[in-house]
Amino acid sequence: MGVLLISGTSTDVGKTVATAAVAAAASAEGRTVAVCKPAQTGIAPGEPGDLADVTRLTGVTRTLELARYPEPLAPDTAARRAGMPMLTLAETVAGIETLADADLVLVEGAGGLLVRMGEFTLLDLAEKLGAPVLVVAAAGLGTLNHSELTTRTLAAAGVRCAGLVIGAWPDEPDLASECNRDDLPRITGTPLLGAIPAGVGQWDRDRFTGAAPGWFDQDLKNLL
C-alpha cells in the first residue's frame, strides 16, 4: 500500500477536487485507489460530503470517513461543540490500514496542515505513517507565504513534501497568479507539479477523468 496525504495551505484551496484529480490520474495508470477523509465537518448525517464528490468525479468507490460533525469548523472544535468524541491518531491509522489492499490510499486532511482533525494534525498522521504530503495551494495573493509556511513545517518535522499543486487555476489569471506560478517552486524549494483548472469540480465524470492526467507533469505520474 502506498499512502499519500493531501493537505491544503488553508481552507477552500481545492483539496477535494485535487484529491479527485490525483485519484483519476492514478486510476488512469491502472492503479487501484482508495480515499480516506478522516473527519468531515459542516455536513449533516446522511448528506453527501467530500467523499461523495470524489466518487461522483472519479468513480472511485473505496472510500472511508471516520467521523462527521455538523458545524463547519475545525474538527476538534466541531467535536467539542457537538459533545462528540474526537478522532484519535490510533483509530485513524487503523482505519487507513483497512484500505491496504489498494495500490494507493489518498488521505484528505481538513483545512491546513496544522488543523486538528481530532487529537492530532495531518502532520502528526504523516509522521506516524511515514507518508509524504502533497500540498494544495491557492493561485493568488497570499499563497507564497502560506505555501512556504507549510513546506517549512513539513521539512522541520522530517516529512517529505511530494510537491505543490495549484488547486484552482483561474480562467483569466491575474498578474499575481501568473507570478506565483513561477515563484512557488523558487520560494518553497518544492516542485510545482501542476495546476487544476477552476470549475472542474462541476464537470461530469467522463470529462473529468479524461482530462485529469493532463493537469499534472511527469513527476506526479512517477510519484503515483
From TrEMBL:
Main location: cytoplasm
GO CC terms of this entry: cytosol
Domain of life from the UniProt record: Bacteria
One Pfam family this sequence matches: AAA_26
Binding site for Mg(2+): 16, 50, 108
GO biological process, one term: biotin biosynthetic process
Keyword ATP-binding: yes
UniProt keyword annotation of Thylakoid present: no
Recorded metabolic or biological pathway in which this protein acts: Cofactor biosynthesis; biotin biosynthesis; biotin from 7,8-diaminononanoate: step 1/2
Keywords from the UniProt entry: ATP-binding, Biotin biosynthesis, Cytoplasm, Ligase, Magnesium, Metal-binding, Nucleotide-binding
GO molecular function: ATP binding; dethiobiotin synthase activity; magnesium ion binding
Binding site for substrate: 41
Protein name: ATP-dependent dethiobiotin synthetase BioD
Protein species of origin: Nocardia coubleae
